[in-house]
């Protein structure tokens, strides 16, 4: 019996097999890349979805996002956007020195201080006119230190306005007082605890001062002064004293009074302080402390400048 011949197996060429394997590997790679890529996208989406919304800082009670800088934080990083602390508005203070006119030599210790000071000159004294001349030449602010009656009955000095005077005499005395101190920008009362309670006298003073372009500083030698009342009635702007610096002549008392004046300025935005030209202690303290006071954010100015800030064009 003859043998049945075997069927011959046909093998694909080797090159074809290699191509097939590479194709399979390529397909698997594409599938794997697609799966991993989608998982990566999903992970990013979850990160965004889990980004916390505004939360509250328990200390500042303000809302913020921990991973996002605010516009304010970005500005703080930029030096050009930072404000210079020296740009803070200065607080104006005025120091008035009463009783000028007794002795010109008393001016020397104050004139060496390189800040604005205001000098209140009494009329009718030995050095009244010479003091006015010297101070005008230095370009400092001067005012008339107008003598007015006091409740104690002591004599205020030459050029005093008495309540026994008729209106015409009061006006004549006032005019003569002013003529003795050329170059003044205003007036304040010398003594006057009685005179500033006399509405008639106060009205004459304020009316005439307005006609001459002179402001009035109420020294407030009495809490019963009528100057603010009359000024409001006449629509005349005035200034008022806040602190007396040398009612007590001891150095420590003057320092405390000066500090009180600075605190008053901080509270109200400005302050007017009154001392006396005969106080060497006051001169020394101002000279020693003015640099520190300037560094603390205060500025020394004049009554006229202060009045211009508070009441622009007051006599328009």
Low-confidence stretches: 1-10, 35-85
First CA to last CA: what distance? 148 Å
Rg estimate, integer Å: 43 Å
Helicity level: 40-55%
Shape: elongated
Strand/helix succession: HEEHEHEHEHEHEHEEHEHEH
Number of helices: 10
The largest sheet is: 9 strands, parallel
Walkthrough of the structure:
The strands form two sheets. Strands 3, 4, 5, 6, 7, 8, 9, 10 and 11 form a nine-stranded parallel sheet that branches. It contains ten helices and eleven strands. The chain is elongated. Residues 1-10 and 35-85 have low confidence and may be disordered. The chain has a domain at 90-310: TIM Barrel (Alpha-Beta Barrel), CATH 3.20.20.370. The chain is an alpha/beta fold.
Summarize the structure.
The chain has 316 residues and is of the alpha/beta class.
Fold blueprint:
Blueprint: H1 14-50, E1 55-56, E2 63-64, H2 71-77, E3 91-100, H3 108-111, E4 118-121, H4 128-138, E5 141-148, H5 167-179, E6 186-191, H6 199-211, E7 215-218, H7 227-234, E8 239-240, E9 243-244, H8 251-268, E10 271-276, H9 280-295, E11 298-300, H10 303-310
Parallel strand pairs: 3-4, 3-10, 3-11, 4-5, 5-6, 6-7, 7-8, 9-10
Antiparallel strand pairs: 1-2
């Amino acid at each position: 019996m003859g043998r049945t011949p075997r069927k011959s197996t046909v093998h694909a060429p080797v090159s074809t097999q290699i191509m097939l394997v590479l194709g399979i590997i390529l397909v698997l790679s594409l599938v794997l890349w697609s799966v991993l890529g989608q998982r990566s996208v999903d992970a990013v989406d979850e990160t965004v979805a889990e980004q916390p919304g505004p939360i509250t800082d328990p200390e500042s009670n303000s809302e913020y996002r921990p991973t996002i800088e605010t516009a304010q934080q970005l500005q703080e990083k930029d030096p050009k956007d930072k404000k210079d602390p020296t740009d803070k508005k200065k607080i104006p203070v005025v120091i008035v020195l009463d009783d000028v006119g007794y002795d010109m030599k008393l001016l020397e210790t104050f004139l060496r201080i390189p800040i604005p000071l205001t000098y209140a000159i009494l009329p009718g004294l030995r050095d009244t006119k010479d003091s006015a001349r010297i101070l005008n030449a230095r370009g400092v602010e001067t005012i008339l230190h107008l003598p007015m009656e006091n409740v104690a009955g002591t004599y205020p000095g030459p050029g005093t306005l008495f309540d026994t005077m008729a209106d015409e005499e009061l006006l004549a005395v006032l005019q003569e007082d002013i003529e003795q101190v050329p170059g003044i920008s205003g007036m304040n009362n010398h003594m006057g605890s009685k005179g500033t309670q006399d509405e008639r006298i106060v009205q004459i003073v304020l009316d005439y001062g307005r006609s001459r372009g002179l402001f009035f500083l109420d020294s407030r030698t009495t809490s019963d002064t009528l100057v603010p009342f009359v000024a409001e009635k006449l629509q005349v702007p005035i200034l008022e004293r806040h602190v007396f610096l040398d009612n007590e002549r001891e150095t420590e008392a003057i320092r405390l009074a000066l500090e009180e004046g600075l605190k008053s300025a901080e509270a109200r935005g400005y302050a007017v302080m009154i001392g006396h030209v005969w106080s060497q202690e006051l001169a020394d303290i101002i000279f020693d402390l003015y640099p520190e006071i300037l560094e603390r954010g205060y500025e020394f100015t004049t009554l006229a400048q202060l009045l211009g800030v508070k009441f622009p064009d007051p006599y328009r």
